[in-house]
Amino acid sequence: MGRRQKYGEPVYFSRAFHSRRSHWGCWQHAGKGRPGKKIPLNKWLEWGGRQWYLPAAYSCGEGLVLDLCCQIPRADIQAFLDKWAPLAEREEPDEWSLARRMAVEKEDPLAFDLRLQVLVNGVALFNKRSSCRGWNPCLPETTSRQGAEPALLKRYGLSSASGWQLWRAAFPWRTKSRPRVNSLVVTLDQSPDALPGPCFSTGAPGAEFTFAHPATGVQHTLTVKAYEPQQLEGPGIDSTQMPTHYAVMTYTICPELPEGAMEAVDCGSSDPPQGQAGNGAAVVCIIGGADGPTQILKSGQGERKPHIACSALHYEPVEQVQWQTVFYQKELEKKQVVLL
Fold it and tell me: Is the peptide bond before 196 cis (omega within 30 degrees of 0)?
C-alpha cells in the first residue's frame, strides 16, 4: 500500500475525521478493513467565489473516499467575528430569536453546507457519509492548534493563515467487487440557505396572511385551513416530566411554491423536560425540539397542496402561536468537475 505520509495516516472507508490526534499527527485510527489506495488528484478550482482544492481520492474495498478543501479568506472570518462576537458577549445566543440565529448561520463563512455527487466510470455513487472540520485562523493559538485540523493542513500543504473547511466523503461501490477507477467526475452542490421571512400569529380557519418572498419580492398569501390543539399520548410519555401539548396548523400558499421552498416554524422553543423524560424524549426531538423549534411539513393532493406545521411542545394547551416563515433558496449553481 506504500509508505505513510509524513503528516497523516492511511485512509479507511469506515473512518471519518476525529478530534483525537494519533502519533502520526492526524486523527485517531478507528477504521476497519484495509486502508484505501491513494488516487492523487491535486485539482484546484473556483466555485462560489472561493478556491477549492481536491487533493486526493482513496479507493477502498467498500467504496471511494474523497477529500475536499475550501479556502476561506481570513478577512471574511474576522469581519464575521467583529460583527457578531460583541453581541454574543452582551446577550446569551441561546436566547436570540430564530430569525437572528438563521442570519448568523447564513453569514458564518465556516458554515457552508456542501452536497456531493460522484460518477466513477460513468456510474453514480450514493454519498453514504460526509464529515467536515473547520480551521479558524482568527482563534487564539492555544485553541486553534488543538484537534486534527493542524495535521490535516500539513497533510495537504495548506496555509494555516487562511480559513478552511475540510470535507471527507464516502461513497459505497455499486458492484460486489472494487472496480478499477478509470474516470472520476464530482458535482459540487449547495444545500439551500434558510432565509427568515415575516412572522404572523395563528388565526381562525379562513384567516389570511399576505407576505413577500424575501429573495424574489413576489407576494404570496397563506390561508389557514385548520388549527387544532393536540397532545402526545402513548407508552413512555409522562406529561408530568415532559411537555405534551402542541398545536397543528394546516395551511395553503397561493401562488404555490416549489416543494421544500418554504415552511412555517414556531418562533418559540419547547418547554424543557423535567427530570428523566424516558422514552418520550425522542418524541420531543421529533415534534417540538428539545433544543429549539422543529416543525413537520407534509403535502397532500390537489392544486393547492395543504401544508402542516406543528408548534413547539408545552405543558399547557397551546392557544396562540407566533409563526416564523422560513424560505429556502440556493445561491450557487451546481458545478461538475472532471477529475480523471
Answer: no
CB 326 within 8 A of CB 194: yes
CA distance 85 to 136: 14
Taking phi first (over 0 means left), then psi (-120 to 50 degrees means alpha), and beta for anything else, what does residue 77 get? alpha
**Average pLDDT value over all residues in the chain:** 82
Q: Are strands 63-72 and 50-59 parallel, antiparallel or unpaired?
A: antiparallel
Copy the grid coordinates of residue 8: 497523516
- pLDDT tens digits, one per residue of 2-42: 333 343 568 888 876 644 433 333 333 445 678 899 999 99
Which residue carries 456510474 as its cell?
123
Enter the DSSP assignment of 10: -
Q: What region does 127 belong to: left with phi over 0, alpha with psi -120 to 50, or beta?
A: beta
For residue 144, report the phi and psi dihedrals to the nearest 5 degrees: -70, -20
Cell of 277: 423524560
Instruction: Tell me, rounded to whole angstroms, the distance of Cα 327 from its chain centroid.
Output: 15
Contacts for 204 with CB less than 8 Å, ≥ 6 apart: 224, 227
User: Which residue bears the cell 388565526?
Assistant: 203
pTM for the whole thing? 0.74
Q: Rounded to whole angstroms, how far apart are CA atoms 169 and 191?
A: 15
- HSE on the CB side for 72, CA within 13 Å? 22
- How far is residue 52's CA from residue 325's CA, in Å, rounded to a whole number? 33
Rounded distance between C-alpha atoms, residue 270 and residue 293, angstroms: 6
What is the DSSP track for 35-98?
Answer: PPEEEEEEEEEEETTEEEEEEEEEE-SSEEEEEEEEEE-HHHHHHHHHHHHHHHHHS-GGGS-H
**What's the gap between Cα 308 and its chain centre?**
22
